[in-house]
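agent: user wants the full assembly modeled, not chains individually. Plan: 1) parse entity lines 2) check alphabet per entity 3) run joint structure prediction 4) return tokens. Steps 1-2 passed, two entities, 447 residues total. Proceeding.
--- entities ---
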Amino acid sequence: MNESELLDAHRQELRRGTVVLACLLALRTPGYGYGLLKTLESAGIPSDANTIYPLLRRLEERGLLESEWDTSESRPRKFYRTSERGAALAAQLLIEMNQLDAALRELNEGVPKGGSS
Amino acid sequence: MTDNSLTARYLAAVLRHIPERQRADVERELRSSIGDAIDDRVAAGEGMTEAERSTLEGLGDPARLAASLTGKPMYLVGPELFPTYRQLLTLLLSVVVPIVGIVMGVLELVNQGTIGDAIVTGGGAALNVAVHLSFWITLVFAVAERVDSTRKATEQATGGPWKLEDLPKVPSNRITIGEMAGEVFTLLFTIGGLIVLQNLTWTDAATGQVLPLLEPALVNFWLPALVVVLAALVVFHLVVYTVGRWTMPLAVAHTILELAFALPVAYLALNGMLVNPAFAAAIGYPPLAEGDGPVMLILAAGVVIVTAWEIFDGFRRARRSAVATVAGTA
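--- prediction returned ---
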């Protein structure tokens, strides 16, 4: 595995957990599959169609998203919206995310958290 | 007219794996998502055909996409059940298969079969049982993987979730002097027994004849040969003690020596070449000297079973000591 493959593999792993949070946050404004893909991409969290579409169904099954078909246009689209439960979970995850970010920052700067050694 | 575009073919390939009640919804959504992606690519300047191709390629293998859309696993036995599955399969294969093979082989011998017949029958039965066991256990676990309540039941039935108490003791790989002495004394005792048997005689009260118990012809070749093999086994156990532990090459050498003892004994027993026929006739029990008599069949089967166990034990010890070496205990 060369350097760029290694980076790709680890970057993908790092992002995997954040895609759920990104979807829940982005879909506080209702959106459909392909539109969400584009939203995430322009927000700097590119993801694959074959990851996002199954994820949307799973999140809906767990009651974190709600869906509704919009058939008013020539192409019918399934719109997803973050449910109350989903929004609450997203808020929690966001706190976790910030804590992780802070912890990694501290590790990187070499300041031990307890300061005992 | 049937729509035979790549998109239609792709959708059909995905939907084949989607349960009926979800199919319409998945089709409608996926169709509009693909349409959106193609439109977007065309708007960015790609040709229609190209846009369709790269969109569908981006979605990847339809079976895989269907599996992740429905949340169905793409494997037979998943990581949660796999350790139990492997444990159960290994246990049953290593216990049931040899037992069935040996029992069927011995039954063949009892039914007047030759050694060759016994090997074919025993081996065939063992293979048959191995295939059946593997298939049915895999099937049960594959079903359990897919039915949540069955999965819980399977986990419970096979010992529940892993506990700290399940940890086996770290095997000690150093052979003790006691173990070595036990093996050596057993062998020396057997050698002594053979020599005593060779010289035992029985005096017929009626005729006053002195009859050797063992077949006299054995003394010329087979008895000395067996004593040599047993002596080699004594040396072998001393070597194992010097090395300190069983290794795979030692287990292989052990197998050869064990077979060099067991096969001739079984051969002699099954051909009625062990006991002096005159002695058997004199004590009024001729089957003692007959190759297809019950006594010799039981003797041959006993030797084969004990030897099979000894060989298995050698490999088991070699494996254990390899594990213990890795675990870092001496």
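agent: reporting back. The interface with chain A takes residues 25, 28-30, 32-33, 35-37, 40, 58-60, 64-65, 68-69, 71 of chain B (CB under 8 Å). Residues 201 and 212 of chain B are 4 Å apart (CA to CA).
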